[in-house]
Amino acid sequence: MGYAPFSPIAPALINVLCVPAGRKSAGIITHRAPDQEPQAEGHASALLFHFTSHSDPNFVQHTKFFEPNRRPQIALGIIDGSSLPPDAFDAALEHAQSRLRQISEQASATDRPIKLIVFDAPNSLPTSDAVFVHTDPDKPSVCELIKWLSEAVALAGSHTLDVVNSEEAELPQSVVRSERLNGAEARPDSRTENSQRQSVIPSLGRKNTQTAPVPEDQTYEATSGKIVSAALVKLLIGQWAEALPQLVDGARAARDANSPAWHAKALEGMLVCLLLHAWAGNEFQIPQDCYPTTRGLSTGSAVHIIADDNRTVSEKFTSTNTNGLTGLTAMLPGLTATIMNLYDRSTIGFDNGLPPILVCEMRVRLTALLIILRRHGSLLSAAALDELVGLREDIKLAPPLGPSSAALVLRSSPLSSLLVESITEAQAQLPVQVACTIYAAVGQRLAELKLERKQGFYLKDVLQKLPPVLVEARKVGAAEAAVHPSASGMNAFASTDKHHAIVAQGVRALLKLTMRTFNIPDLWDTYHRGGDTDSQATTRKRLSSWLSVFTSGDIATKLEVLRLCVRVSDALPDLIGSTQFMGLLLFVARQQITVFPDPSNTVPLIAMEEQTRLANGINNAVSATQRSGVTKVLADYWDDFLIRGIELYESPSAGKLMPHSSQDLSLTTTSGTSKKDPFIYNPFSGDRKTSGPAVLVKDEVASFDVILQNPLEIDIEVENISLLSESCRFEAEMHSVVIGPLTTQGFTLQGTPKETGSLKIIGCHARIRNCHERDFTVYSGLWKPPEVVKRKQLRNIEVSLPETRTLELKVVDPLPQLRICSTTLTQQSIMLLDGEKCRFSLTLENADSIPADLILFSYQDSVSRQLQDALATKDLQPSDTYELQHQLMHRQAIRRINHTPESNGRSSSTAAVEASSKQTFEFEVLGKPGLTEVVVLVDYAYLAKPRNEVEGTFYTRQLRFVVNVTVNGSVDVPRCAIVSIPEQITSPQAHPTTPQTNGKAPAAAAENEQKDVATNQGKCLLQLDLRSLWQTSLNVTIETTDPTTTSSPSSETPPNWTPATTMTLLPTQTARTLTLFTRLYIPSPHAQIPTLTPSTTRQFVVSASKLSLEAELATRETFWYHDEICKRVRIRWREESTHQGGRGREGEIDTRKAIRLSPRMIDALRVEHLQVSFDLVAEREEDESKVVRKGSEAFEVRRNVFAKLIVRVRNLGREEVKLLLRLQPCLADQPHGVAMDLGKKFVWSGVLQRVFRGGIAADESATSELGVVGLAPGSYEVNATVEEVRARSREVEGVSGGNAERRIWHARRPASIVVVE
Amino acid sequence: MSYYFVVVSPTDTPMFEYTFGTSKAGGSGQAHFRNGESSRYMNQFIIHAAIDVAEEVQWLSPNMWLKVIDHYAPTNSHISCFMTGTNVRFMLLHQPGGPPAAAGSRTSTLSSSSIAQNPLSPQTDEAIRQFMTEVYEVWVKTMMNPFYKIGDEIKSPAFRARVAAAGRKWL
């Protein structure tokens, strides 16, 4: 359509056809030929040019007089002078001229002035017929063009006037009747020539004269038509002042001739004329004919709305002021209503009505006028006039004015219904191609009315009509090109057909506009091409677009619009658009952004079949372009949240890397041989939780667990995916994966760090099938849309992205890789008896080229774990704590056996495995009840320097060797007792030579006795019941040792064990053993129970024990005696087969567990602080033979012999004691009352109660003498008791309280004196 | 007459949709839209386009009942609107059930004044107003449900049943 039918001032626009006349001219047209360029010459009148690059041949021949400017009135050929060859410039110009002539013929403008315009000509050639214009602001040349244009207009105008005058007789019939026919047939006839037209019109005219109802009216109609069309030509050529009265005449004539078409045309002409006058600022008088009259108005509802609303207002204005803008404004709605009514009548009133397209165009045109008026607040301001004329297009909508401030109120709904009505008509009466132009114009006007939803609705309507038409056109085109219709589109795409590309782009723009009116945001700007990381901002933008789609409007309609876009793109076919829209549809359809790991995921809004269809569609489009080989189209992947998590996958085989600080090295014992204190923190034992970044080793393949999501119900094929890293060189491996429908799925990706330092894994680089390759950030958090309830909130929705995650890693220098290549254990399990020890060895192999120069062993076992747990409870008795600690410290389930020093003398603490070598280490497992497994942890590293020079953090790898242990019982001690030995048994052996020594030297005998007391403190019997729990007979040996007999008191030398009892136990047999055992002297049995844990040793401790003082003291005493006895007794067992040369089992019973002491047993075991011993010697030397020692405390004396009882008290304690001695003679073996009756039987000289003067110092002894005579034969006893002189409070460490009291010691046995005749 | 009733939230999201036919004058209560299969989404499009008009009309009248606000000629559909205080719109698309009028003609058939035939008659207007008022009552009750979150789709079967009953009663 060469002319602007929807411009409000269309009748006054001169239609100028601008066509390219040479090469490279297309660009110039688009850049330099504005759509509409009015040129005002002065203010009296103006010429308004409408430049267009194409002409519409439809209807041209029939509207020659009704709309004289429908066909091009001037044809301009544009040529780029710089592109012409300079040597053949004239020839080229000539060629262009002829081409232009040809084009103008096609546009049925042969009789119009034509001109060639040459831009940027190298040299101006005045001889040529062309006009030369320079792109630089060269005023003269432009002026020259304008001058020529005005001349041409004048010429054309006079020519047209001549034509009008000459053809007056045929004018009305041809115009009116043939148009209707054409409209009904709706067949564009693009190649109608002028000559043909002349021949067609009379025939049509003849045909229609037969049906014409009132022939005489036609003459009037013709006259009015002639007047009107002459006036229209004058309006065109700028003679507005002359045109207006002529139009008034024409209107009257048409009204009289009952020709609504010409009447309406004349009124429209008058309206335009008045508007132009107003724009130019001329004085003008509104003709009376313009005011609406009720006469002849039809009952058109839409027209009524406007007319009714404003008639009273307009009448008010006409009465006061008929001149000027206000009057014009007031008159406008009424006038437009009248014109529309007249047009309507012209279509429906008669057979020979106007073609519907003209009516539709007019309706849109007049509505546009009202819309512009409404936008300017219903005032014909200068700006409004400028916009009407087309000078300004970017006017913003004026703020809506209240009804009081404006003369008119133009509501948008009647205007919109006028527009919609024209659409309805167009739809009903016009072919689709023509109707589309009306649709587009109406859509534009609706948008100007801010009725975007309506606009969207009609745009959608247009789109809905497009696909069948496009398909039809393709079929026709394919038939012409003799290819299959389905292939035609592909061919068009494959060929470098720029035209097709431009069309596709245009359609795409239209589709996107439609989308936007439905509030579906256009996302393509946010996609980056070429694998750039999409920044969070763009992701957020896309997310907020998705949100806006979901929070406002009806999602179902939006999906329908998108489907429509896909259909149109497919029909075109526009593969780029098609892939884009399909991708967008998939993007919009999903209901959740981040897929939940659980199966409660909501399905996308479109059915699975449709998703599959869309995916296939994308696939087809991409493969089609691939086949064509010209360009490759790829879709945009619709899910920014593909990667939902990345974790480092630590394979158990490679050995976990543990960070250590350099202090950790100093904590480990330097001598690997000594037993490690289990209570000192060992940084290498156990599974410690490491904080800080995970560690990778340079040049070693690392695996990562990547979680991918798929929000759709179709499989997503990821063609290749690799990790994306930062700040460190990292070689990522390519992988491919298929993600199942509507899930999150884990996948392992690998890569190799190539540099040491810190490494960041920020996401993945992936290419999904048929989609652009791009980067994906890791979004690990879940996302929920914010709630939007109010319309206001829609404007600024704060969208926060889900939590992102980057994986911070540290890459360290290469470490050796050790492995356990062999072990002496055939299976990783052993069976032990309780107390048995077993050895095994591990061989570590270093296959790497890096030596492992730090190897540290640490252990775990099931018993230690339980013991540690038990120790952790704080409410244990100190003795129990000590026992547990002792178990941990001295009876470790596993320990390393020190290698016998090798030839190179290397100690095992510097254990190392050289590169590509092996090394064997030996371990010993001790069978303990409850032991189920032991674990050897081997930490190794390559430090490359001495240990004390290590600084900062270093990393070790750990090997783990687990041995399963089964422990069976060996020998059990169900019962244990300690009994004292009666005097009668021990004394003969103990003192076989006493009488002799006594007789020789009493002083020496006394010394001897002293020594006896000090060293040989008497014996007791250790009674143990042993039960065999093992299935073969066991040989049990009980060994004792006496540290006091050994020469050196150093505890470090191994004790000298002497076997005391040996016996063989049959399976399940219980046997009782008795062992002679030296009684124990404990210097301080009440000392505090020590603790073995250095960490819990405190200087000041308040006992939390609830025990009384006595109980506490008893506990301590028990503990110390138990401790001492356990050191002195050892119970070993061995299988019988061991003796016969076989390799049987052997072991040792844990005596600390086997021996339990009761207070009675302690009494039997104890040696007191103060030892009281007796001696009896004769007073006179001749009587020496009459006094005979019979035992250690037993004497025989003759009757009436004066003897001397010497009581010796020896202080074994550590401090001096001041003592009171009490002697109690009595009859032996008599009841208490009788025993004291000693008169005339046994007499003594001296007091029985006496004091040791000066006290007895530590380790000293004192004697006291008492003269005694036995008067009657019999058996007597003298008991001795020593008592402290002064009471003193006992100070017991760690126990509070305790009253002051005097301690009393009794002689172990009384002195037994037998008096004989 | 066939009806399509929808409650549109302030953000233009449909909160409740219900399609029904007239039960008066021997109607079956089933909707028979003349655009057939495409009515499923066409009605939504028409309602969507009519929101534009509702936004303009709401400022011109102090009433909640805005009467017939839009007309879509190709299917002869009329759209009535009732607006609540919170800018929630009850939109009712009603389409006379008779033979489709000649497209493009603006002369409506005034032959019948029954609700089923004449969408512009005062009787129809009154019936729709009654319907809307009743639905409004039910809607207010639904809003007061503590388990209902403002802005969500109304899924209550009781609400649906009440709307259906109101449709049967008045339309």
Structural write-up:
The complex is a heterodimer of chains A (1317) and B (171). With 1317 residues, chain A is of the alpha+beta class. Chain A has 6 domains: 10-410, no CATH class; 453-628, no CATH class; 643-653 and 696-812, Immunoglobulin-like; 821-967, Immunoglobulins (Immunoglobulin-like); 971-1164, no CATH class; 1168-1316, Immunoglobulin-like (Sandwich). Chain A contains 33 helices and 43 strands. In chain A, strands 34, 35, 37, 39, 41, 42 and 43 form a 7-stranded mixed β-sheet that branches. A 6-stranded mixed β-sheet of chain A has the order 2-3-1-4-5-6, sandwiched between helices. In chain A, strands 9, 11, 13, 15, 16 and 17 form a 6-stranded mixed β-sheet that branches. In chain A, β15 and β16 (773-777) form a beta hairpin. In chain A, α15 (452-481) packs parallel to α19 (555-571). Chain A starts with 12 loop residues before the first strand and ends with a strand. About 13% of the residues of chain A have low confidence. Chain B is α+β, with helices and mostly antiparallel strands. Chain B has a single domain, classed as Beta-Lactamase. In chain B, strands 2-1-5-4-3 form a 5-stranded antiparallel β-sheet. In chain B, β1 (2-8) and β2 form a beta hairpin. In chain B, α2 packs antiparallel against α3. Chain B is globular, with a radius of gyration of 15 Å. The model of chain B is unreliable at 99-113 (pLDDT under 50). Classes of the chains: A alpha+beta (1317), B alpha+beta (171). The interface between A and B is medium-sized, with 39 and 31 residues. Chain B: Residues 99-121 are annotated as: Disordered. Chain B: Pfam families: Sedlin_N (PF04628). Chain B: Residues 105-114 have a biased composition (Low complexity). Chain B: This is TRAPP subunit.
